[in-house]
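FW: tagging you since you asked about this chain on Friday. Here's the raw sequence from the shared folder, copied in full. Didn't touch anything.
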Amino acid sequence: MFENLLYWVIMFVLLAFPFFYLRAVKNFSWQKTIADLLPKPQNWKKELLGTAKLLALLLLVYVVVFAILTIVGLNDLDKVQSALTEQIKSGWPVLVLTFIVVLFIEELFFRAFLVKRIGVIPSTIVFAAAHFGYGSIAEIIGVLALGLVLSYWYKKNNSLTQNYLAHLFYDLIALALYLL
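HL: got it, structure written out here
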C-alpha cells in the first residue's frame, strides 16, 4: 500500500514540478507556461500520421533491441512480468487509469519539459533511470532506446499528442502481447 502511495506522490511531483518551475523560477505567465508544456496540436491528420509513424518506429526499435538482447543472452524481463502481473491484479479500471495518467505525465515531464531544457540524451537517461524500479537490465536498455526515439521525435515535431498516443499504443500492444 505504501509503495502505491509513494508511486502516486512521485507522479504528482513529476506533473507539478514543470508548472512550478516555469511559474515560480522562470516567472512565466500561466498562458506562457501552458503554451510551453502543452504545444498546440497540429491538424488531426498530421497528428494521426505522426502518431502512426512514431508507433511504427517504436515497434521497430523494440524488435531490434529484443533481437540484440536475445542474441547476447540478456533476458531478465521476468522481473517486469512479475510487476505487470501485480498491476493487472489491481483490476482493469486501475490499470487503464494508470496507463492514461502515467503516460501523460511521462510525456509531459520527460519530453515537453526536460527535452527543451536539458536535451534529448540527458532527458533519455533520466527517463531510463526512472524505470529502474523493476531491477531489469533488459528493460533499462529497452527504455533507453525507446526513450531516445520518443525524445528525438518530440524535439523534431514538438507534438505532445503524437508522443502520447504512440507511447500509449506501444504500451497497450506490449500489454496485449504479455497477456497472450
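FW: The two ends are 28 Å apart (CA to CA).
HL: agreed, and The mean pLDDT is 90.
FW: great, closing this out.
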